[in-house]
Amino acid sequence: SVGKTSFIRYLLESDFPGMHVGPEPTTDRFQAIMYGAATRELPGNALASNPDTPFYELSRCFGNAFLSKFSGCEVPSLFARGCTLIDTPGVLSGRKQTEDRLYSYEDVVRWFAPRADLILLMFDAHKVDISDEFKRVIEVLQGHDDKVRVVMNKADSLSPEELLRVNSALSWSLSRILRSPESRRVYVGSFWDAPLRHGNFLNPLFESEAVALLTDLAAVPRNCTVGRINALVARTRRVRVQALLLQHLRAEMPKVGSKDRKQRELIAGIEDVFYAVMKRHNLPAGDFPDVSKFRHTLATSEAPGARIPYPH
Description:
alpha/beta
């Protein structure tokens, strides 16, 4: 209903297999739109079983419950030649509707987020309230703020006064979820293949916003290599910090005596461990993982090597 599918059709300049457009949330599945010499539809299981596609891990991570709600298609579009688009299901507001899903929407978004080069959060200008599920989805995107773009669609149907109030309300709501001192950039316009509503003196603004958004999207293929290098460097820094943390914890473990008690003490005082490693190796605090999550992983994970290793 916010116009995600219409926006993708606007970018591709053509229809694509599996698309559904309507006033209600019509997209009920994740769909990957890719370039191909001819138009064809691809079932989710076939996509996830092909090791040459970026979706190969999906079958192992989520299984058939998700793959039955995942599909793909190929289209001979010049825009699709430069990137792969993911159309997502509409975010639901009713608790019963979200419970009826046989997979975790947030977990799927968490899988896609680090692999995406750009993430668009689309809002209908008439309905900018953020449901509980949508809030959880946005919170999953923390750490990927540089990829997130906010789009307010169907803005040409509002008066200037209404648009000002709606834009302010949306910016305020997002500021409470996406914790950032900077104001979030919002692209405002009507992003589909129909002409703007006649007589609105804000139409030149909407046209310039559309050009700015398309320019941002066009830069994605050019910046892809730089983005991958940036992600690799960031991941390397995180791995180094985790290795140093585990090395410090291992050195603190006794060779004899109550190892379980010492392990509990170290996990309870993990903040002191973080501080000691940071000072000893002159590391920035921003490279360290979330303290609560790290403590929880150490305390509860039964995976080999996840607990504090004993010295030999």
